C-alpha cells in the first residue's frame, strides 16, 4: 500500500468519530511497521486520548521504527492530554506522515517542527483536500469563530419544496430521508424557522441509532414571537448572525438548516451557510409557488451567489448535489 492508501485509512478512521468528537477535531492514526498495521485509533472527546496515543497503546513495542500516518498534525501542546508529538518521539517512531496541519493556533505546524527537530522524517500534504473536507466543521469553528453551516434542501427537479396547496410529505425518497438523518448525526445543532415549525411540527431528531456524545440541539428561529417555549427546543429571537455567535459560545461546532425558502435565502445572504446539500427528486410540480430558495431574489446575474466544488451522488431514485458557497470554503 502507498502513503496515500494509509492516509485514506487514517481519514476513514477519523470519520468514525462523527458525533463523538465535537468540539474537537476528527482525527485518525495508523501505525505501520514492515507493511503491516501495528496499531490504529480515532479520537472521541469523551475518550480523552488522541488518535496517536490510542494507536501507540495498541502497537506497543512495534511502534519503534514504524511509520505513523495521521489525518491531522500531531499536537505539540498540553491540553487535556500531554503533546502527541512528544509521545511519538518517545516511542521511537521513524517517520510521520500527516494529511494536513492542525489549524488550531496552539498547534499550527509546531507538532511537525517538534518531530523534525527530533530527527524524525516528516511529510505533510497527502490527500489534504480530503482531510480538510472531513474536518471542515472543526476548521471553520477554529478559524472563523462560528459554527460550520450546512443548508439541506429537499426539492423536485424544478426546484419546488411543496405543491401549490402546501403538500410536501414526501417529495424525496426514503433513501434521501435516511441520508438526511446522517447529516443530522454529523452536526451539533439543527435550525429551522417559526413558519416551518408551526406548519410541519417537525421532530428534527437524530434517528440514525448511532452514538453521539451530546444530544442534538434543536433551534427554532422566531423573531416574531409566534412559537412560545416548546419543550426540547431552543427558541431564539435574534438575527442569524447573533444565533451563530450564541451557538459558538455554546461550543456548537456545526449546524444543519432545515427551513423554509425565505430563511434559506437569508441564511445564505448572512454568511452562516458554508455548504448546501440538495436532495433532488425526479418529479415536476410546476407553478410559481414554493421555491426551494425564496427571498427577494437577485436583480442582476452579477449578484448571484456562486457555488463551487460541487459533487453529485444518488440516494435511491434521487440526485444528491453538494456544493460550497463561494468564498466560504
Keywords:
329 residues; alpha/beta; Cytidine Deaminase, domain 2; Dihydrofolate Reductase, subunit A; eight-stranded mixed sheet; elongated
Description:
- With 329 residues, the protein is α/β, with parallel strands linked by helices.
- The protein contains ten helices and 13 strands.
- The strands form two sheets. Strands 9-8-7-10-6-11-13-12 form an eight-stranded mixed beta sheet, sandwiched between helices.
- α4 (110-117) links the parallel β4 and β5.
- It is elongated.
- It starts with a helix and ends with a strand.
Quick rundown:
This protein is of the alpha/beta class and 329 residues long.
How is the topology of this model organized?
Layout: H1 3-15, E1 28-33, E2 36-42, H2 51-59, E3 67-70, H3 84-91, E4 95-98, H4 110-117, E5 121-124, H5 128-134, H6 136-144, E6 148-156, H7 174-185, E7 189-193, H8 194-200, E8 217-221, E9 234-236, H9 240-249, E10 254-257, H10 261-270, E11 275-281, E12 307-315, E13 318-325
Parallel strand pairs: 3-4, 4-5, 6-10, 6-11, 7-8, 7-10, 8-9
Antiparallel strand pairs: 1-2, 1-3, 11-13, 12-13
Helix pairs in contact: 3-4
Question: N-to-C SSE series?
Answer: HEEHEHEHEHHEHEHEEHEHEEE
Our measurement of the CA-to-CA distance between the termini, rounded to an integer number of angstroms, reads 31 Å
Largest sheet: 8 strands, mixed
What is the overall pLDDT average? 93
Write out the CATH superfamily name of the largest domain: Dihydrofolate Reductase, subunit A
Rounded to an integer, what's the Rg over CA atoms?
22 Å
Number of strands: 13
Amino acid at each position: 500500500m502507498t502513503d496515500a492508501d494509509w492516509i485514506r485509512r487514517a481519514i476513514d478512521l477519523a470519520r468514525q468519530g462523527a458525533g463523538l468528537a465535537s468540539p474537537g477535531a476528527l482525527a485518525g492514526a495508523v501505525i505501520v511497521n514492515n507493511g503491516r498495521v501495528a496499531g490504529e485509533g480515532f479520537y472521541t472527546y469523551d475518550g480523552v486520548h488522541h488518535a496517536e496515543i490510542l494507536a501507540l497503546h495498541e502497537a506497543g513495542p512495534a511502534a519503534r521504527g514504524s511509520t505513523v500516518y495521521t489525518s491531522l498534525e500531531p499536537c505539540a501542546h498540553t491540553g487535556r492530554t500531554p503533546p502527541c508529538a512528544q509521545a511519538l518521539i518517545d516511542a521511537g517512531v521513524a517517520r510521520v506522515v500527516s494529511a494536513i496541519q492542525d489549524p488550531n493556533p496552539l498547534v499550527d505546524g509546531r507538532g511537525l517542527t517538534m518531530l523534525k527537530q527530533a530527527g524524525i522524517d516528516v511529510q505533510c500534504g497527502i490527500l489534504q483536500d480530503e482531510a480538510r473536507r472531513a474536518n471542515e466543521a472543526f476548521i471553520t469553528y477554529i478559524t472563523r469563530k462560528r459554527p460550520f453551516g450546512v443548508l439541506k434542501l429537499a426539492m423536485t427537479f424544478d426546484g419546488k419544496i411543496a405543491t401549490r396547496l402546501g403538500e410536501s410529505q414526501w417529495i424525496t425518497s426514503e433513501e434521501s430521508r435516511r441520508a438526511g438523518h446522517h447529516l443530522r448525526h454529523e452536526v451539533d445543532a439543527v435550525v429551522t424557522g417559526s413558519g416551518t415549525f408551526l406548519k410541519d411540527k417537525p421532530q428534527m431528531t437524530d434517528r440514525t441509532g448511532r452514538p453521539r456524545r451530546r444530544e442534538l440541539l434543536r433551534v427554532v428561529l422566531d423573531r416574531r414571537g409566534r412559537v412560545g417555549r416548546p419543550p426540547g427546543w431552543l427558541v431564539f429571537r435574534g438575527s442569524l448572525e447573533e444565533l451563530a455567535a450564541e451557538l459558538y459560545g455554546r461550543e456548537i461546532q456545526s449546524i444543519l438548516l432545515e427551513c423554509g425558502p425565505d430563511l434559506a435565502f437569508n441564511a445564505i445572504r448572512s454568511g452562516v451557510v458554508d455548504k448546501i446539500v440538495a436532495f433532488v427528486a425526479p418529479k415536476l410540480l410546476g407553478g410559481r409557488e414554493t421555491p426551494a430558495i425564496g427571498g427577494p431574489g437577485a436583480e442582476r446575474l452579477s449578484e448571484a451567489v456562486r457555488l463551487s466544488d460541487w459533487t453529485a451522488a444518488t440516494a435511491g431514485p434521487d440526485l444528491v448535489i453538494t456544493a460550497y458557497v463561494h468564498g466560504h470554503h
